[in-house]
Amino acid sequence: MAHRKKLILAVIDGLTPDVFEDAVETGSAPALAFLAHHGSYRRGISTFPSLTPVCLSSIATGAHPDIHRIPHLVWWHRGERRLVEYGSSFAAIRAAGTRRSILDAIFNMNEQHLGRDAVTVYEALEEAGLTTAAVNITCYRGRRAHLPLVPGFTRPAYGPEQFFFYSLFESEVTGAPVAVFGRSTGSIDAYAAYVGRWLVTRDSFDLLVYYLPDYDFASHALGPGASREALARSDAAVGALIEAAGGPDEFLERYAVVVCSDHGQTAVDRALSLEAAFAGIDNVLVTGSNRAGMVYRLPSCREEPADLARRLDGSPAAEVVLWGEGDEAVARRDGEELRFAPADGGWRTSGDASLLDQPDALERSWAALANPNAGELLVSPPLGVELTDLAGRSHLGGGSHGSLEAGDSEVPILTVGLDAEPRRIVDLAPLALAHFGVERPAYADAAAA
Ligand SMILES: [Zn+2]
Fold it and tell me: For position 185, what pLDDT does the model report?
């Protein structure tokens, strides 16, 4: 068998194609520029809602939310009749119950919420006898139990063989500095760099999923494109891997690489709430956060989804409203409707197709609606609008993401030492499996066909 390189998948949270391309052209991110000069680059498309837990689950499983079942940052758990809040803001975590939210974000998302039919790259590759490593990525499900390092906590998390998660779980003692889950300090990438250097130095993995959140945090606060200092830190974290391998030539000799982000970001100039449109209606629950909203019909709600959707006509918080009706999906925008359903490897539509002209909008909308944990309505707001979270917080004056719009949905995808031309974040896990000659889950084959 030919020499097969090990693979590193680096995810820089919230990095937009514009910022990536500029950093490469100007050389302001030297490690990324070096990789770009030896690789092949394209703009790719995220999933919907284009929110971190949803997107990272798509990256790690190669599935949209219809399969992986993570619907949003905040959602209504029908089985347990409660809200799940993974961390829209500290205030939203408090509003949802701090202990519960922390358990949801750290344990339950992987152990209970992530769909059983979804296969993570760690599960698939370790099943085939390979070693995988995950650093800080929130979609980490694997088969090995790891006990928390926090005194008093005894509940294990099931992750890959090499599992490093914000100083809470560390499969080996590395001496890395403490990183706090919740990422308020912008120090997470430095922790990742320490662990990454340790893993590369010891040649401890076949696949490394290397997640770098600091850029997204800065971009939420300052706005997209205004976070060069944070990008420098992400770049340094990638550079640390190159250095640990013994230099650029040695690094490229040993590793194939994918660098991508999970979603884009767009500027926020208005913070609005969806709730007002449903005032006085019984048994309707709205979950909003960042740039995506969902509306749940609770038992004994008498209004049909189409009725609820019409209540958002003229709302400045809603640009596209989506719901399912029979075996079709419906998109409503400016009072017009488009009906669509998959047919013969493409789409059957009736109505004005330009209502859903955003990137891969039919595919992404369909998959989001087909998620059994999603609300009956999905709402994609117009550019500039952010939906306030449970505690009324927003990133007004900064950046956000979550919608179908191109700015939230386009991501940079750089591949180095790989023949594939992935154009969606759901292509990355199948690419990793194909690289190691491991069979892809059936859902990935169907999506690629
Ligand atoms: Zn993100």
Answer: 56
3-state secondary structure of 62: coil
Dihedral, CA of residue 149, residue 155, residue 157 and residue 162, to nearest 10: 30
Compute the distance from residue 122 Cα to the ligand 1 centre, in Å: 20
- 417 CA distance to ligand 1 centroid (A)? 25
Cα 281 to ligand 1 centre (Å): 33
Q: How far is the CA of 303 from the centre of ligand 1 (A)?
A: 34
Cβ neighbours of residue 367 closer than 8 Å, sequence gap 6 or more: 47, 48, 64, 65, 66, 67
The DSSP 8-state label assigned to residue 427 in this structure reads: G
What is the CA(344)–ligand 1 centre distance, in A? 33
Measured in angstroms, how far is the CA atom of residue 261 from the centroid of ligand 1? 7
pLDDT tens digit sequence for 294-322: 999 999 999 999 999 999 999 999 999 99
Please give the full DSSP string across 294-340, using - where no structure is assigned.
Answer: EEEE-TT--S-HHHHHHTTTT-TT-SEEEEEETTEEEEEETTEEEEE
For residue 1, pLDDT beyond 50: no
Name the residue type at position 27: G
**Length of the chain, in residues:** 449
Residue 57 is inside which H or E element, if any? helix 52-61
Kindly state the helix (H) or strand (E) to which residue 93 belongs, with its residue range. Answer: helix 90-96
pTM of the model: 0.96
| Whether the Cβ atoms of residue 395 and residue 416 lie closer than 8 Å to each other | no
Beta-carbon neighbours within 5 Å of ion ligand 1: 13-14, 52, 216, 262
* Strands, E assignment, 390-437: 399-400, 410-416
Q: How far is the CA of 15 from the centre of ligand 1 (A)?
A: 8
402 and 51 Cβ atoms separated by less than 8 Å: yes
Give residue-wise pLDDT tens across range 171-206: 988 888 777 665 555 578 889 999 999 999 999 999
Q: What is the mean pLDDT of residues 358-369?
A: 98
Using the mean position of ligand 1's atoms as its centre, give its distance from the Cα of residue 50 in Å: 8
151 Cα distance to chain centroid: 30
Q: What is the DSSP string of 172-186?
A: S---PPP--TT--SS
Structure tokens, 241:
């891997």
Is the backbone of residue 246 left (phi > 0), alpha (psi -120 to 50) or beta? left
